[in-house]
Amino acid sequence: xxxxxxxxxxxxxxxxxxxxxxxxxxxxxxxxxxxxxxxxxxxxxxxxxxxxxxxxxxxxxxxxxxxxxxxxxxxxxxxxxxxxxxxxxxxxxxxxxxxxxxxxxxxxxxxxxxxxxxxxxxxxxxxxxxxxxxxxxxxxxxxxxxxxxxxxxxxxxxxxxxxxxxxxxxxxxxxxxxxxxxxxxxxxxxxxxxxxxxxxxxxxxxxxxxxxxxxxxxxxxxxxxxx
Length: 227
Description:
Layout: H1 6-14, H2 17-27, H3 32-40, H4 47-55, H5 63-72, E1 76-84, H6 85-94, E2 103-112, E3 115-119, H7 140-147, E4 156-157, E5 167-170, E6 181-184, H8 193-202, E7 209-210, H9 215-223
Parallel strand pairs: 1-2, 4-7
Antiparallel strand pairs: 1-5, 2-3, 5-6
Helix pairs in contact: 2-3, 4-6, 5-9
């Protein structure tokens, strides 16, 4: 839904030199979520400032309209994100989306004083999630599979191909079986070819792929489906 990288946005806005520090950490081999946590520990701002700044991250044009339309049609809207709980809660609260979003799957975060700490969604002390294509902290394909059972792939709205993605919009059926799923994603972390290949091997893909650039494209995609 956002039109910027929330992980780096806070640093660009509050303490730009930490963007360089973040790049140095990842160049040294530190996993991204852990690198963000280390950079946040050096962020010199109050809890209130951090929440206010991150809540005001730019939004994709038309995206809020698309989310509201999905809600009006009785669809479930879930988020699978590599951000963190505090960042996402700040954004949802500012835009009055808390009651619309069914569930959020993301890295856990919590404040200790004014310092925000982020821990991986997939705990470090647990066995690996097993997907060789995704970062160690989260496989979005497996996370999505935990949320619903797919009996048939319907229309997919995406900019990269058929993929598990950062925002998942699902149409509820009376049988509680999801027969149509719309996927929206915009980053490399949203592309899970391992899980995709597994599903393609099991059953033919029946999806329509619709490229998108802004939330207005997604809105049109939603409007093309009956309630």
